[in-house]
């Protein structure tokens, strides 16, 4: 597994405001959107392209276009939905599949409550969106789900990751047999006893959308 920490002053600045407990939901949503577009630039570094030629007003120019099959962007509901627009802004021709997952607050185990993902992902590059990589359980399960359907290249885009979760994913995803990359704006200090990232930003879903019932 490859881990890329996006080290850029604009990312660090926006992340600082995002962490601030005083930042309200509308601002949190706006900053999430902006951060994802900056992260998407790094996350799509390996997107597959094929050569094309276009006529400029002067001559033929060699260029590239995104290769088929189209990339699939997969936000993990709920919080990953806040990252969708920022990602498809850079990849407007991508298709979007949805995975609804929730982590039990006591056992910290993730479970899937909804999915709308193509049955056959053979040859597809997938971009998983989830702001928080805490224990890594949610991301490990979502990567396995996509690999079982044939995805052959997966990049996860996160805002924050915990070192414990990254270590867990490195062990778990060793055997999936395809390249997996995690792109994150920062790796934080540790997980607390409730499985929250420290210093983190709190519950990303709640900060985006309000307290879930
Ligand atoms: O790495 P993990 O320990 O698995 O935790 C990370 C997951 O926890 C949060 O989801 P949550 O269960 O709070 O659902 P929500 O997005 O609906 O708030 C977060 O959005 C991730 O999906
Ligand atoms: O810190 C954390 C950990 C899991 N999920 C969140 O939203 N925040
Ligand atoms: Mg949540």
TrEMBL record:
Cofactor note: Binds 1 Mg(2+) ion per subunit. The magnesium is bound as Mg-PRPP.
Keywords: Allosteric enzyme, Glycosyltransferase, GTP-binding, Magnesium, Nucleotide-binding, Transferase
An example Gene Ontology biological process: uracil salvage
Pfam families: UPRTase
Presence of keyword Magnesium: yes
Recorded catalytic activity of this chain's protein: UMP + diphosphate = 5-phospho-alpha-D-ribose 1-diphosphate + uracil
Chain positions recorded as uracil binding sites: 197, 202-204
Occurrences of domain Phosphoribosyltransferase (ranges): 5-210
GO molecular function, one term: uracil phosphoribosyltransferase activity
Pathway(s) served: Pyrimidine metabolism; UMP biosynthesis via salvage pathway; UMP from uracil: step 1/1
Signal peptide limits: none
EC identifiers of the protein: 2.4.2.9
Cellular compartments per GO CC: cytoplasm
UniProt cofactor(s): Mg(2+)
Binding site for 5-phospho-alpha-D-ribose 1-diphosphate: 78, 103, 130-138, 203
Xref: CDD domains: PRTases_typeI
UniProt keyword annotation of Glycosyltransferase present: yes
Family: Belongs to the UPRTase family.
HAMAP family with a match to the protein in the record: Upp_B (MF_01218_B)
Role this protein plays: Catalyzes the conversion of uracil and 5-phospho-alpha-D-ribose 1-diphosphate (PRPP) to UMP and diphosphate.
Identification of the protein by name: Uracil phosphoribosyltransferase
Organism: Actinopolymorpha singaporensis
